[in-house]
Design goal:
Number of strands: 12
CATH class of the largest domain: Mainly Beta
Radius of gyration: 21 Å
Strand order of the largest sheet: 4-3-12-7-10
Order of helices and strands: EEHEEEEEEEEEE
Number of domains: 2
Amino acid sequence: MTIQVNGTTGIDTIQDNTVSSSKIVNGAVTPADTQVGALPSSIIVVTGNGNGSTNTFVKRFTTTLLSQGSDVTYTASATNGDTFTINTSGTYAVSYSDAYTIVADLTITANGVTLTINPGNINDITRVTVCDSPASAVGCCSASRYFSAGTVIRAQNSSGTQLASGIYAQFTITRVA
């Protein structure tokens, strides 16, 4: 069988001794329509900047290393802490790493409502994943999960003094499917 593919017009010709030529809808396999060959939506933020002044257990970051695609919107807020809003339903890989001078709880939440207490005490369904950061060492938690459009993702921690002025803090979210 011979198949000729043109990235602009789709599949132009199929030849298998029974069908000599067939045209599939113009543009059927373009990257804009199917994301074939397109880069995934991804945001990476680094360097901790404390927590929100109202949402006192929601992490803030100072530097955006990568922001590509439109499936997630990153919002930095000195008051509420930083948020990542899902614009397109799908499966996302999320990770959060940080380091403190004392043992700290690190948590990723989805539509969290418990934003002013130690996230280690969150026992509801909003907790996506949780881990401990040992004293003076980096801890990292990660998960892959389906999120609906409108879901708000947050990195939460139990506060404390950041190790090395927050240089170990990083949050990554990438749409994988």
